Amino acid sequence: MRALITTLLATGCMAAYPTEDGLIKMFQPILDEAAAKYNCTFGISFKSSNLTASAVSGYTRPGYETKVDDKWVWGSITKVMTGSTVLQLVNKGKLSLDDKLPDLVDPFFAKVKPFNFSTCEDLWGPEVKLVTVRDLLAMQSGIPDFDTAKGTGKNMTDSFRATVYANPHSDYSPYKLMNVPWVHTGKLIHLPGLHCGKIPEWLCTSYSSTNFMLLGLIAAQAYGAEDWDKFDQSVLFPESLKPRFANISYANHGSPSNFTMINGYDRTHYNGQPGNGGEFEGIKVYDIDGVFSGWTASDVVGSVSEIADLFFSVYGPEYLILDKEYVDMMIPTDPFYGLATFNLTSHTGAAARSLGYGTAYGHIGATYGYQSIGSYHPALEFSLSVASDIETDHQDQPAYVFCFAFNSILSEMIETPIKCHYTPGNYYSGGCNCTVAN
Length: 438
What we know:
Elements: H1 2-11, H2 20-38, E1 42-47, E2 52-57, E3 59-61, E4 64-65, E5 72-73, H3 78-91, H4 101-112, H5 120-124, H6 133-137, H7 159-166, H8 174-178, H9 210-222, E6 249-250, E7 265-266, E8 283-284, E9 300-302, H10 304-315, H11 324-330, E10 342-343, H12 350-355, E11 361-367, E12 370-377, E13 382-388, E14 390-391, H13 396-414, E15 418-426, E16 430-436
Parallel strand pairs: 7-14
Antiparallel strand pairs: 1-2, 1-13, 3-4, 5-9, 6-9, 7-8, 10-11, 11-12, 12-13, 15-16
Helix pairs in contact: 2-13, 3-9, 4-9
C-alpha cells in the first residue's frame, strides 16, 4: 500500500498529506461547531508515518479550557490493546487461538480464589469448555455481558449503571463483575463460534465486555501476575515504543478524577434521565469509580495523540506492535467485528467508499460519561482518534466529528470536493452521508 500511495503522489492523482498546521486549521472549525452543537468538549488527532496533528475544543468544566495534551477516558478502545497483547502471546507460542478458556483461566482462579465461584464451569456451565481464545476475541463466546446498557428510546433501563451511580466509590474487580447474577448464570447465551450453528458465522456475534476481562486474565496468567491488578498492561509495547506511550494510564482503581482533567457527563435516557439537549447538563461521573468497570475491557486513559499513535502502531504499515499475519487476523471480514476490532467502514460515508478510500477499522469507545472512536484507514495509511466528554444514547457526537474530519482530509488529499451531512445513526454505525460535489 505504501508503494501505491507513493505512486499516486508521484503521478499527481493524490496530493500529499496536509501539513500539521493545515490539519489543525481543518479540524478546529469542525470541533468548534460540534462542541456548540452538542454542548460538550472534543479532542481529535491524526497520525501517519511522519505526521501527528491534534486539536481540541470546549470547556470540560467552568474555567478550565481543554488542552491538546489532556488525557481522555477511552472505554472500549482498551479492547484493541488487550486483543493485541493476547495475539502477541499467540505469536510467541505462549497461547493458541484454539486454546480452551477453562484451561487458561481456571488455574488463575485457583490461585486468587474469587468469592462464590472457582471455575469457568461454575459461572457458565459445561458448554464453556467449548469456548476458545478466538471466540473471546471475536465476541462469539456466548458469555453474558456485565454491562446492562441495552436498548434504545426514552424508556431504557440499565440496572448496573444505577448501581454504579448509587455507590460511587465501590470498586468493581473482574471477579465481582463475573459474579453479578446476570453474568453468573450457569449457562452461555448461545454456543460459541463454530458450534453456534448460524451461517454466516458472524451472526453468532454477541458483544460482551466480559470476554475482554477474561482475555485480561489469560494475559495476566501468561505473564505470571499474582492478581488481576498486578498485571502490567504496558507489556503490549516493545521496549523501543515504551517512551512514546509512557503517559498512558490504566485505571484499575479510582475514578476519572484520579487520572484526567476531563470531566464526563452522562446524557443518556437510561433510568429516566432526560437525555441530551435542553437544560440537562448530565450526570457528572468525574468522581465515580465504576466508570472504569471492566478492567482490560475499558480502563485506558490517554491523550488523543497517544491513542491515534496506538492505532497507527497496531494497524499501520510498519507493524510496530504485531506482525502482519496477526494484524490481518484482526481486520473484520464481515459487517461488524473481527478480532478485537470493529468494522468502521460505515462511518466513512458513501463518497469515500465509491472512490475506494472508505475502508476503516478500529474500535468505538463508550463508558459512563465518555464516548470516542479510534480508526485506521488502510487506503490512506493514517489513523484518527476522536474523544468527547459526554455519553449519549447513540454516541452520535464522536461519529459526527469523525465524519467531517475524515472526509475533509480525503477531499484535500485526492483534490476532489466532498459534501457531507450527518443524520443520527444507530449505536454502532453512525450516520455519515457524503457525496462527491459537482
